Structure formats: C-alpha cells, structure tokens
TrEMBL record:
Locations listed in the record: Gas vesicle
Secretion signal span: none
InterPro entries associated with the record: GvpL/GvpF (IPR009430)
Cellular component, GO, one term: gas vesicle
Coiled coil location: none
Chief localisation class: other
Name of the protein in its database record: Gas vesicle synthesis protein GvpLGvpF
Keyword Lipid metabolism listed: no
Length: 207
C-alpha cells in the first residue's frame, strides 16, 4: 500500500512537480481538503527513518514550495509525518483546520532566519551586552524571534527570527553591521528556512 508523506500544509493553489523526495519518491503533489493543501509524496511506510539524505530532501521540498510563484506560505511539518491514505490525511486537515488557518496567517509573507553568536576561544565577553546589541539591531526588523538552546559554552546567543520577505535585505545588512562591530565573535547566519520555530500545529501520523 502506498502511504502519503507530508512536508507541510498551505492554502495556495495545488502543486505538482518532479524532484528527489523522501523515501526515494520522485514526485511531489498535494492532497486537498477545502482550501487546505497538504504537500505530499508517496512512501512505502508510515514510520520513515530520518537519514541525513531524507532530512535534506524534506527541507529542499519545503524550500521549493516557499520559492514558487514569488513566495508561498507553508506550515512545515516535522520529519516523519506519514498517513496510510488520503482519507486519513483529510480527516486530520479537517480537524486541525482552524489551527492551520491561524498558523498560515502568522507566516504569510515571512521566512525564518537563524543567528548563532559564538565567542572566540578564551575571549572575555559580556554576554548580556552582546545580547542587548543584537536585540537593538535585529528585533525592530523581525516580526518575531525565539531563543534556541545554548548547546555549547562558547555560544553567546542562538536565536531564530521570523522576517518579512521585504525586510530580508535590511536584516542581512543589520547582521553584517553586527559582525563589523564585534571582531572577537563569530556570527553564524543561516536561512531562509520554513518557519518551524513559529508554528505549533501538531498532528499525529495515522495508521
């Protein structure tokens, strides 16, 4: 039986395109319920293994959707959401429709960008001052931001930002300005990503 692997949910027109997809699939398309469209590919399991290759394919499909037609909003699913039938998937879309609508409104026209600030070895850094300097430059440009884990002693700041497409250049310039001001810090600036950090719609895979 062929199952449906879900990348995310959008409310734009349906899509269909060929690409390297999760689990060896080569086609991505949509399963629709009313105006919600789940972006899916076919897969032979409802419990896919998260290999590095498939995790990258998952992200690549989301990026492809975000870049289509001048930019599309999508609520991304975490890796591993698979359903055994269109009916099971449509039932989830039906039940979570209000939550998806709210999430789509929140991310419409926006992208996620990430910034890690890392101290050089043995550098004496005032962490609070660095956080304040970054906030002064970036928080007024971003629509929202959230902190992420400081998983290393050298990490001064690890934060995700939700930024309007039209503000991307200003945000880039602000990060570059911070880099110029702090020679003893490394700025690891990443993205754009699908807005994982700013949506909270949880659905369970259906057997």
């Amino acid at each position: 039986m062929t199952n449906r692997y879900v990348y995310g949910v959008m409310d734009d027109d349906p899509v269909e395109f060929e690409t390297d997809a999760v689990g060896g699939a080569d086609r991505v398309y949509t399963v629709s319920h009313r105006r919600l469209n789940a972006v899916v590919s076919d897969i032979d399991t409802t419990s896919p293994e998260e290999t590095d290759e498939d995790a990258q394919r998952h992200d690549d499909v989301l990026r492809e959707i975000m870049e289509r037609d001048g930019g599309r909003a999508i609520v991304p699913m975490q890796f591993g959401m698979a359903f055994e039938s269109d009916r099971a998937l449509k039932n989830v879309l039906r039940g979570a429709r209000p939550a998806f609508r709210r999430a789509l409104n929140d991310v419409e026209g926006r992208i996620e960008l990430g910034l890690k600030v890392v101290r050089e070895e043995d550098a004496e850094i005032d962490d609070d001052a660095v956080e304040e300097a970054v906030a002064d430059e970036l928080e007024s440009i971003a629509a929202q931001s959230v902190p992420n884990d400081l998983f290393s002693d050298r990490l001064v700041l690890n934060r995700s930002y939700l930024v309007e497409h039209e503000d991307r250049e200003a945000f880039d310039d602000a990060v570059a300005e911070l880099e110029d001001q702090h020679d003893d810090l490394m700025f690891r600036y990443t993205g754009p990503f699908a807005p994982y950090s700013f949506v909270d719609v949880k659905i369970g895979a259906q057997q």
